[in-house]
Amino acid sequence: MFENEEDNSTEMSEFENWYEENYRYLKRESKQQPGPDLDISLFFYGIYKPVMDKLAPAVRKLMLKQYPVIDSEFRPMVLEYINWLVSFTGHKLMLNLYNLVQDQKEGISLREKYPDFKTWKDIYARPVKPDLITIDEYDDFSFYTEQEKKQLIEEENKEIIKFFEIQESLRKEFYDIVQPVLFKYYSALDDLDSDGWIVYAYQIRNDYDDYKFRCEYIKKFIEYEFPEEDINLKYDEFQAKFRRIYNEKWERKHHYPKSGLKENN
């Protein structure tokens, strides 16, 4: 009996800490009661925690599949950052979806709440397509014949489509691990209306973009042999140092030794 009471106290402490850390996401104008209410408690224990617990190992597995170089990392500070990313992926998405569900329950107009809603609808309400080059973009290149233009456009578009398909495949892999878990534990998502699904599409894409950005950051950090302590650099400082390292490597790679031949007198 006493063990159960102690475990419950630990869980409540975890819940309270989580609530305080995320209060700005969880506060609702419609709720006057101070502190977390039953809805938030049920969300944390019945949805948020199970989803995050299920996602973490799946995210780690996917990360190592999509960015294999990360598996070579062994430095403690960098591993700490990687572990944080694994445990953090999905966190903001869950909080944003909680607010989305509450907005729908309260009848809040998403079109009024989000100034960019129309733009999101234009992007997410139709299939994604690659941005292909057209003949109009070659109007100023008069030195090419029409046939040469068509051939160049065809070659460039092949590369664009190839890159697009790779990027879409990576994104689909992420969605394929996240969405089944979301829909399993967060049944209220099934009640979203058409506007709600537009906001949902925007939120999950944001979460994927953040995951991708941070994975590519770690990949770059490892491949360009940054010192361990640089993992705590601010992003602008990291970018400045990366450009310096990149330029130095480029210069070494493309350095051509001067000719050893002596000039004739």
Short description:
69% of the residues lie in helices and 0% in strands.
Note down, in words, how this protein is organized:
With 265 residues, the chain is an all-alpha fold. The protein has two domains: 222 residues, no CATH class; 25 residues. The protein contains ten helices and no strands. The radius of gyration is 25 Å and the shape is globular.
| Strand count | 0
Q: What's the Cα radius of gyration?
A: 25 Å
Give the mean pLDDT.
89
Largest sheet properties = none
The sequence of SSEs as H and E is HHHHHHHHHH
Secondary-structure content class: mainly alpha
Categorize the overall geometry.
Answer: globular
Runs with pLDDT <50, length 5+? 1-6, 259-265
Helix-residue proportion? 55-70%
Distance between the termini: 101 Å
SS element count, helices: 10
Integer tally of domains = 2
Report the portion of residues in β strands.
under 5%
What characteristics describe this protein?
265 residues, mainly alpha, 2 domains, globular, disordered N terminus
SSE arrangement:
Elements: H1 2-21, H2 23-26, H3 38-66, H4 76-88, H5 91-105, H6 110-113, H7 117-124, H8 146-185, H9 194-223, H10 235-253
Helix pairs in contact: 3-4, 3-8, 5-9, 7-9
